[in-house]
């Protein structure tokens, strides 16, 4: 799993690091919630839009499974695991209590089916089966969960198991849960699973278990893009969810609501507040050329356009002009050979001087190095004109 942590860090560590110090905060009068803690974040930039006890350490129940899923998808991403691989279920995994799909000990299940059951119906038995496959034991997997949390900047999180079942010491906070869900949302397979409402889980021995999605907002809230519920007597009712309307994408986390309905109402209220009062402004789209070009030495290509690897956008209050600025880390020139897609610099979005997001600037074309004859002619021309 170390390999997957390393290869994921390059893409996700910078996402988690930026935006942490930027805030467009709501006042207490604008949003009133009945819960222990809550957090609202612009998913694209990481800008904080609302916070209530956002760094208070609390039990988060099954929202722990956000990290379980993240590590599993990263393992697939790095080639350590495949969706088609069959995982044999241990007695321990099959014997997990709480929400489950009743896996059979000694039976083998495809990885994608296990992940689907975690995303849809919060299956504890599938979590442990996945953890044991990736790290050898649930304890070793928890160590990797904690390491990954640190890489994401989740400073108030400690995992003791991969399910969220009560166990000391285990805690997180609303802000950290948002960071974890933000990282998970890069995986299309997760989105595919999280939108399933009802589906049968078919066992190798012919049994079926009906899976029902625990996140009711995927049917009741327009634009809900998945999420994870949680409940224990200790944690109360919890929910982390994402929603998108137009280009505005937000993540909302509620911990410790006093009823299932109130957690859904609280997250819906945060979504409503975001979409009613904010809009996403795009500064540079993925694939578009930056304003600046880079000079190329040692090639027939003299000036190279650079394109953004991903879109740079940020959240702004409607009717106001936030202090965002787009700048560049880009050398004046580069030496051939250059291949299309090579990283030549970065476009950086800042707010009030604080970095919000950055996108790699990629070479828009190949710039092959001069042949011997081309280099000779180039030198001769410079000598002649000199």
UniProtKB/TrEMBL annotation:
Keywords: Carboxypeptidase, Cell shape, Cell wall biogenesis/degradation, Hydrolase, Peptidoglycan synthesis, Protease, Signal. It holds the Pfam family PBP5_C. Residues 1-19 form the signal peptide. The keyword Hydrolase applies. GO terms for molecular function: serine-type D-Ala-D-Ala carboxypeptidase activity. One of its GO terms (biological process) is regulation of cell shape. Pathway: Cell wall biogenesis; peptidoglycan biosynthesis. InterPro entries: Beta-lactam/transpept-like (IPR012338), Peniciliin-bd_prot_C_sf (IPR015956), Peptidase_S11 (IPR018044), Peptidase_S11_C (IPR012907), Peptidase_S11_C_sf (IPR037167), Peptidase_S11_N (IPR001967). It catalyses: Preferential cleavage: (Ac)2-L-Lys-D-Ala-|-D-Ala. Also transpeptidation of peptidyl-alanyl moieties that are N-acyl substituents of D-alanine. Its EC number is 3.4.16.4. It is an enzyme of class 3 (hydrolase). It comes from the Bacteria. Residues 278-369 form the Peptidase S11 D-Ala-D-Ala carboxypeptidase A C-terminal domain. The active site is at 62 (acyl-ester intermediate), 65 (proton acceptor), 122. Substrate binds at residue 228. PANTHER family: D-ALANYL-D-ALANINE CARBOXYPEPTIDASE (PTHR21581), TRAFFICKING PROTEIN PARTICLE COMPLEX SUBUNIT 12 (PTHR21581:SF6). Belongs to the peptidase S11 family. Removes C-terminal D-alanyl residues from sugar-peptide cell wall precursors. This is serine-type D-Ala-D-Ala carboxypeptidase.
